[in-house]
Amino acid sequence: MWIAAVSLVAWLWLLLCQGFFWRTDVRLPPREDPGRWPSVCVVVPARDEAAVLPASLPSLLAQDYPGPAEVFLVDDGSTDGTGEVARALAAEHGGLPLTITSPGEPPAGWTGKLWAVRHGIALTRAREPEFLLLTDADIAHAPDSLRTLVAAAGSDGSGRFDLVSQMARLRVESGWERLVVPAFVYFFAQLYPFRRIGRAGSRTAAAAGGCVLLRADVAERARIPDAIRHAVIDDVALARAVKGAGGRVWLGLAERVDSVRPYPRLDDLWRMVSRSAYAQLRHSPALLAGTVAGLALVYLVPPVALAVGLAAGNAAVAVPGGLAWLVMTGTYLPMLRYYGLPSRLAPLLPFTAFLYLLMTVDSAVRHYRGRGAAWKGRTYARPAPVTDEPSP
Questions:
Q1: What angle do CA 264, 270, 275 make, to 5 degrees?
Q2: Cβ-contact 40, 65 below 8 angstroms
Q3: Helix (H, G, I), strand (E, B) or coil at 251
Q4: Are residues 60 and 161 in the same domain?
Q5: Which residue range is the domain that position 361 belongs to?
Q6: How many structural domains is the chain composed of?
Q7: Residues 205 and 273 in one domain
Q8: Mean pLDDT calculated for residue range 360-378
Q9: Taking a C-beta distance cutoff of 8 angstroms, is the pair 306, 321 a contact?
Q10: Closest Cα partner for 375 from 55, 49, 139?
Q11: Averaged pLDDT score across all residues of the chain
């Protein structure tokens, strides 16, 4: 009986005290266009992205941006002709200038993506940009995306942001995508409530790596990406580094920034989550145990308590379990609406949470079997502590 009551109390606390994480109205802050449009360099790390580039790269090249802008695609050791596809797309579509380069294999202590980002940022220094747009190769941008990001960053005053990030709208076409993807964003917002991230003086920091606009001088002051070179969850680490350097961060949901990468099977989604879940827990068995217990208490107890209470005719168990499940379902509805999905999926959140619990445990198992965070042919072990010594 007490477990069901504790679960209900946890949900009431999440509903009212966790930054209203369940609301989906945190969008780019409206701003007037600046009097002078600052220069921007777009850095796109890409590893084996030939399949998705035709749906994403032309959208970057076609940006309707009034100021100086240029795109740098960093081919991170691709074996599928990513660079050739990018060149062909640039020749076919034109638009913003495109530079394609390759940094070679990352040295020890670097993830491949951050090594590519480092190489791209180094190339942009000759242009002396005021902003950097770090965006993934599977992200498609509306024609005014860069314009609205820069305007939202502001130029002065208390509303000025040093990092503006949008959580790209992920694909929800397959059945598994509809079941798992909205919950992924929902859980992320629960851990990092968007309203708290943008609040002046708040210590909560996170970003969405698919779309990050960053002031170049702040990137240099925060030693981006050298300071986070080992990070598997690089977007959260980046935001923390920016806040640590005194910068302000904003994160919200995107309206016309979309991921074009398909995750049609459960196995695809499983690998996406499990590759970094244990890294999120800092490879700590204690945090893993606490997370598993927390997921069970918050997401699994309510439906189990309701079913057991009804079967045993015990209202003291059924009522708090049913109320907790009701609150859970209600907080999930806004995210389903954001993705244009039917409300009938909301009561299935406990099942999806159970899948995430299994993915998290699997992530730890992979780590202890020496497979760590595996992605596109590379495996990253637990990182060593970062020192202040110069990077390679």
A1: 130
A2: yes
A3: strand
A4: yes
A5: 1-20+268-368
A6: 2
A7: no
A8: 79
A9: yes
A10: 49
A11: 93
Residue written as token pair 């210590």: 203
Please report, as a single letter, which amino acid is at residue 229: R
Residues 3-35 as b or e (16 or more Cβ within 10 Å = b)? ebbebbebbeebeeebbbbbebebebbeeeeee
Residue type for 76, please? D
pLDDT in tens, 95-104: 999 999 999 9
Which of 114, 149, 144, 116 lies closest to 131 in space, CA to CA? 149
DSSP H or E segment with residue 169: strand 163-169
At 316-367, the pLDDT tens digits run: 999 999 999 999 999 999 999 999 999 999 999 999 999 999 999 999 998 8
Amino acid at 136: D
Lowest mean pLDDT among 155-159, 168-172, 205-209: 155-159
Mind listing the pLDDT tens digit for each residue in 14-30? Answer: 999 999 999 999 999 77
Q: What is the rounded distance in angstroms from the CA atom of residue 376 to the CA atom of residue 232? A: 13
- The identity of residue 292, as a single letter, is V
Residue 247 contacts residue 215 (beta carbons within 8 Å)? yes
Please state, for a pLDDT cut of 90, what percent of the chain lies above it.
85
Q: Which residue has the tokens 């970057």?
A: 60
First to last CA, the chain: 58
Strand partners, 72: 43, 99
What pLDDT does 30 receive?
Answer: 78
The domain that holds 249 is classified in CATH as: 3.90.550.10
